[in-house]
Amino acid sequence: MRIILLGAPGAGKGTQADSIKGKYPVAHISTGDILRANVKAGTELGKSAKEYMDAGKLVPDEVIIGMMEKRLLEADCKDGFLLDGFPRTIGQAEALDLMLAKLGIKLDAVVSLEIDDDTVVGRLTARRVCKQCGEIYNTVLKPAAKEGVCDKCGGEVIQRDDDKESVIRNRLSVFHGQTSPLIDYYGKKGLLITVDATGGKDAVLKILEQRKG
Ligand SMILES: [Zn+2]
């Protein structure tokens, strides 16, 4: 199974990816992971990426694509892979197509995990974190026993700026701006499957199974 998983921050891509991994031998690949791995290993691409990041710039598509190509040639991708949150732009999607064609690899599906913005805002604004030990809380699902105090270490439990509504709405608007052209792009190729992100942790897996069967 060779899949791209698209979905807004807070849509639950990680949960769906875990469920797919439970059934199919797919390597789970995200841009963030391969960037960190290349920087850590000190590869040429990693050094190049680090220069951009240190300068506070976006890592260019050709660097990301170069890392992605190396990653897809690793042994654990032989039986399948799941690209998590990549590609992000049409430019990256086109570059990915060229690279996959070169490697003789065909995608099985591009899954768009659909969720409405208010649900995402509800999910993410509930997040709290301990300033001291990093323990994650949730005001609905996992509140601290005493509000504002960490159960584990007694540290202060706060809402990070990233989890505030205005920041989340802004991220969602950037996400939609970048993703709607991708949805059209993969729709025209006949690869797109849309899945309701509120359909439970196996929502994507169920649809992939149905299509296969
Ligand atoms: Zn703590």
UniProtKB/TrEMBL annotation:
Q: Where does ATP bind?
A: G10, A11, G12, K13, G14, T15, R127, I136, Y137, G199
Annotated Zn(2+) binding lies at C130, C133, C150, C153
Q: Where is this region: NMP?
A: 30-59
Q: In which pathway does it act?
A: Purine metabolism; AMP biosynthesis via salvage pathway; AMP from ADP: step 1/1
Keyword line? ATP-binding, Cytoplasm, Kinase, Metal-binding, Nucleotide biosynthesis, Nucleotide-binding, Transferase, Zinc
Q: Which Pfam families match?
A: ADK, ADK_lid
Q: What GO molecular function annotation could you give as one example from this UniProt entry?
A: AMP kinase activity
Give the GO cellular component terms, alphabetically: cytoplasm
Q: Which BP terms from GO are recorded?
A: AMP salvage
User: Which segments carry the region annotation LID?
Assistant: 126-163
Q: Where in the cell is it found?
A: Cytoplasm
Annotated EC: 2.7.4.3
InterPro entries linked to this entry: Adenyl_kin_sub (IPR006259), Adenylat/UMP-CMP_kin (IPR000850), Adenylat_kinase_CS (IPR033690), Adenylate_kinase_lid-dom (IPR007862), P-loop_NTPase (IPR027417)
* Gene3D superfamilies reported for this sequence: P-loop containing nucleotide triphosphate hydrolases
Report which reactions are catalysed by this protein.
AMP + ATP = 2 ADP
Q: By its UniProt entry, which PROSITE patterns does this protein fall under?
A: ADENYLATE_KINASE
Instruction: Describe the function of this protein.
Output: Catalyzes the reversible transfer of the terminal phosphate group between ATP and AMP. Plays an important role in cellular energy homeostasis and in adenine nucleotide metabolism.
- Share what the entry says about its subunit structure, partners included: Monomer.
NCBIfam families assigned: adk (TIGR01351), PRK00279.1-2 (NF001380), PRK00279.1-3 (NF001381), PRK14527.1 (NF011100)
Assigned protein family: Belongs to the adenylate kinase family.
What's written under domain? Answer: Consists of three domains, a large central CORE domain and two small peripheral domains, NMPbind and LID, which undergo movements during catalysis. The LID domain closes over the site of phosphoryl transfer upon ATP binding. Assembling and dissambling the active center during each catalytic cycle provides an effective means to prevent ATP hydrolysis. Some bacteria have evolved a zinc-coordinating structure that stabilizes the LID domain.
Q: Which PANTHER family match?
A: NUCLEOTIDE KINASE
Record's protein name: Adenylate kinase
Recorded source organism is: Cloacibacillus porcorum
Lineage of the organism = Bacteria, Thermotogati, Synergistota, Synergistia, Synergistales
